[in-house]
Inverse folding.
């Protein structure tokens, strides 16, 4: 199989790495990719939001599978363009991707499907915002209705900050706050059948101790030793299958990845959000644990063949990823600083580095080129050893002004019940 991955972040490096370890994938490409993916695949510099450019590249290299990493190309209809050319693609079409592209549309679908979620109001002006904030009270949850690269949500007890975020966004969804830990569940769907992956947990706040602003994610781990054994089955029955059926009833076949963001509340699991693609940085740990070859698995979502997959194989043990972020992230991150120590980090037993926001500086040197610069993954027989290896490797990276959280997976590794 010849495969092409679209995107250039840590999630895409994780996807490229997983595909490179699949013996059925004989030729691997990435667009635009990054310095990390270039060691495993041929990088191509194109605009991944341009459906014509993507289909022309896929046709030229003879791609038998195109994996769309980020959300923006999906919302722009890149998967539609590929399917129109008869090129297999992992990712929902434009209409299905509205589950991520519009928080208001996602709420509408959830309500119609009977999916358990937070009460919410769609607000278009300051008066509606004020009424909704009064109705739900603090902590205030204000979500940009459109795409915001994982940073469009504000959860705060500060009324003025909540109102400011609503003004900056325009159309917003304001929700009641959901108590309990959050969990990410990735589900492969061919529009009829659905196959769940391993649940993971990520960390959104910028700083240790869940302090600071929301980010795209500062780390993640899998599996979740504290999760109830029947959690995945419950979510598949109460959330995933009703949602896929509701989309089908609306004339939209959901093919690709359905990301279910959950809050495990005292009243049971509630949906926080849907995304239409792999989450970042949860993908980095979930794919590390996946033992089933990934290429044919992703291709089956496009060909309607997921019904023949009864179970997936997983490596024993655990994986933890720690995000190394640039100075001033998630604001206006500093770019262009040299990065060293990656070889030393990769030499740590059970650890490796995925590139997220890097670029070449000259022929062989690396520099920072984004907010979340590197993902350091540690693996081991349990969470304690996995996180120990991740942090040992992360400490070897040198990037001026960079920072990382020191508490990723800490409570779970200590055996604390997160529920």
């Amino acid at each position: 199989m010849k495969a092409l991955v679209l995107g250039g972040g840590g999630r895409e490096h994780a996807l490229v790495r997983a595909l490179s370890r699949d013996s059925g994938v004989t030729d691997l490409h990435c667009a635009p990719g990054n310095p990390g993916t270039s060691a495993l695949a041929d990088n191509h510099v194109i605009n991944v939001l341009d459906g014509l450019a993507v289909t022309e590249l896929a046709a030229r290299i003879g791609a038998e599978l195109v994996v769309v990493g980020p959300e923006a190309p999906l919302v722009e209809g890149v998967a539609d363009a590929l399917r129109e050319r008869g090129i297999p693609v992992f990712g929902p079409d434009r209409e299905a991707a509205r589950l991520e592209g519009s928080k208001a549309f996602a709420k509408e679908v959830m309500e119609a499907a009977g999916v358990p979620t937070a009460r919410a109001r769609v607000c278009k002006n300051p008066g509606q915002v004020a009424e909704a904030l009064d109705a739900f009270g603090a902590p205030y949850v204000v979500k940009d209705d459109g795409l915001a690269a994982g940073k469009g949500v504000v959860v705060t007890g500060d009324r003025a900050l909540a109102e400011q975020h609503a003004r900056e966004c325009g159309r917003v969804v304001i929700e009641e706050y959901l108590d309990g830990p959050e969990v990410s569940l990735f589900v492969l769907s061919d529009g009829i059948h659905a196959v769940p992956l391993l649940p993971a947990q990520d960390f959104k706040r910028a700083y240790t101790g869940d302090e600071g602003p929301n980010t795209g994610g500062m780390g993640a781990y899998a599996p979740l030793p504290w999760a109830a054994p029947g959690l995945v089955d419950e979510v598949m029955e109460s959330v995933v299958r009703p949602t896929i059926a509701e989309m089908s009833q609306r004339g939209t076949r959901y093919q690709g990845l359905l990301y279910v963001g959950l809050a495990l509340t005292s009243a049971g699991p509630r949906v926080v959000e849907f995304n239409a693609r792999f989450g970042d940085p949860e993908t980095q740990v979930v794919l590390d644990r996946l033992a089933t070859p990934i290429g044919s698995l992703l291709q089956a979502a496009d060909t309607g063949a997921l019904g023949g997959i009864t179970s997936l194989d997983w490596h024993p043990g655990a994986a933890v990823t720690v995000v190394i972020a640039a100075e001033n992230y998630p604001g206006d991150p500093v770019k262009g600083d040299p990065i060293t120590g990656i070889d030393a980090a990769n030499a740590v037993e059970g650890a490796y580095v995925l590139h997220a926001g890097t670029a070449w500086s000259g022929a062989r040197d690396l520099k920072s080129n984004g907010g979340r610069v590197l993902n350091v993954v540690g693996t081991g027989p349990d969470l304690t050893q996995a996180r120990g290896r991740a942090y040992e490797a992360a400490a070897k990276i040198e990037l001026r002004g960079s920072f990382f959280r020191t508490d990723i997976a800490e409570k779970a590794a200590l055996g604390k019940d997160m529920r």
Summary: The CA atoms of residues 181 and 264 lie 6 Å apart. DSSP finds 14 helices and 23 strands in the chain.
